[in-house]
Amino acid sequence: MNKPNNQYPHFRQYIHLATGLALTAVLACGVTVANAESRGPSADGARHANVQQHRARMAEQHRQRKMREGTRTITRTRPDGATATRTTTVDIDQESQTRTRTTEGERFDGSTYSSSDVMQRSEDGFTRESTRTNAEGVTTSRNVVATIDKEAGTLHKEITVVDKDGETHTRVIDRSRGDNESDSAE
Questions:
Q1: DSSP label at 165?
Q2: In the prediction, which pLDDT does 22 show?
Q3: Quick one: pLDDT at residue 112?
Q4: Does the pTM of the predicted model rise above 0.85?
Q5: How far apart, in whole angstroms, are the C-alpha atoms of residue 152 and residue 171?
Q6: So what's the pLDDT on residue 58?
């Protein structure tokens, strides 16, 4: 006669527990797959689409920054409905070798600003005149006169800045090929 095996009295309970856990795991996987299919595109797919949109936006901004001539307007709108606008115009006159860039903008808080930058090439260098007006109406300016001697390998720059307090600062930079920069400021 066979005697019941009392050596492992709880063996049957362990079998039931293991079977229950396996069944729960299978059902959980099935529910997860069903939920993923009902949600549509995966989170990775959405993230990929956002990355692609970001790259396209950055490429367009890079192209706009490198514009040579024309007008561009950029408008940003925040979730609360506030807008900020910046309009930049670049004009190039090949005959006089002059590039003019003007910018006008309005910030989210309604304050305005503007800037102007005129650069003109000459036979022996260039001049550049820049002005900026901030939201408070304070204007600053920076003028550069550069003389370049390619044969001697030298550069001479005179930079004059009028700061927000109306004080004038002058800086002279002399460089020659292979030498360190010499600099003097007033």
A1: T
A2: 76
A3: 95
A4: no
A5: 22
A6: 74
Q: What is the pLDDT of residues 15-36, one digit of tens each?
A: 767 777 777 777 766 655 555 5
Residue in this structure with the two tokens 């003007």, named with its chain if needed: 102
CA–CA separation, 18 vs 122, rounded Å? 88
Report which of 133, 80, 64, 83 is spatially closest to residue 104, judged by C-alpha positions: 133
- Count of beta carbons in the 10 Å neighbourhood of residue 112: 13
**Token digits of residue 66:** 């490198």
Beta-carbon contacts of 135 under 8 Å, excluding residues fewer than 6 positions away, are 107, 111, 112, 113
Give the whole-angstrom CA distance, residue 134 versus residue 119.
21
Question: Closest by alpha carbon to 126, among 152, 98, 150, 102?
Answer: 98
Q: Which residue has the tokens 């009392």?
A: 6
Would you say the C-alpha torsion 74, 80, 81, 82 has a positive or negative sign? Answer: negative
pLDDT at 57: 74
DSSP readout, 109-136?
A: TS-EEEEEEEEEEETTEEEEEEEEE-TT
* Amino acid symbol at 57: R
